[in-house]
Amino acid sequence: MLIGEIAALITAVLWSGSAIAFSEASKQIGSSLVNITRMVIGLFFLAITILLLDINTNISLNQYYYLIISGIIGIAFGDAFLFKALEMIGARISMLLMAVSPIIAAVLAFLFLGENISFWGVIGIIITFTGILLVLLQKSEATNRDKNSVVGIVFALLAALGQGGGLIFAKLAFNNGEINGFFATFIRLAAAFIVFYPILRFSNRLNNPIEKLKKNKKGFVFSSIGAFIGPYLGITMSLIAVKHAYVGIASTLMSTVPVIMLPIVYFYYKEKLSLSSILGAFITVLGISVLFLKN
Length: 295
Known about the structure:
Helix content: over 70%
Largest sheet: none
Radius of gyration: 18 Å
Number of helices: 13
Shape: globular
Distance between the termini: 10 Å
Structural class: mainly alpha
Order of helices and strands: HHHHHHHHHHHHH
Number of strands: 0
């Protein structure tokens, strides 16, 4: 059964859609408000689901601990560093550096979880990673930002570390006993919100959020769509992925977002695709095929 691998690919598709929605929402109401709004809406969807499905919420204190740490590292601080990196060095280089998260996750899983990936698993990860890099490196981006900013590069790497570290702690929670994916996502997202919201408030980056959302319904709609397919469905599927697959493999498959976004960018933004973009997509599919067939 390839439940984990399939869930990871579904996660990548969902995150691709949420990236478009959040991008459109940010143009309307700003990235900070979008970030906190997606958390609130995601928590609402998760709470309703847990109540309606009468999901079992009995987990151990250790599992709570691991999920809380996972949410703080992966969702709160990881995303905060990513947004700063996007601001300082632009999307192309930030995404390129974020693409190292599968390697970080695999190394952390080897060190702390004792996960050993087979020879073909390593080959598949390398091929997939190569395809992602090829797609990202060809992407031109006109910007006046200093792309060699050391601080921006450090922030992007910290974001990748946050994503990989968050998955490790989530995996530790699942290793300690059965947890429903929706409830695990709720705990992670709630922990991230509790940490992230005060930071935004005290830094004066959230001035009259309710009023802004009321005045800009389009931004709220895009935020809601993004929250449903991202923090709600996407993060839940990512937890199912790491539950049923090695963290390194699941993280690699989830990192194919830039490749999956190619047809979305082509049809939605009418952006022409280069030969290297298409070639990178095929190489990535080849890497994914190796992961499916040899693990």
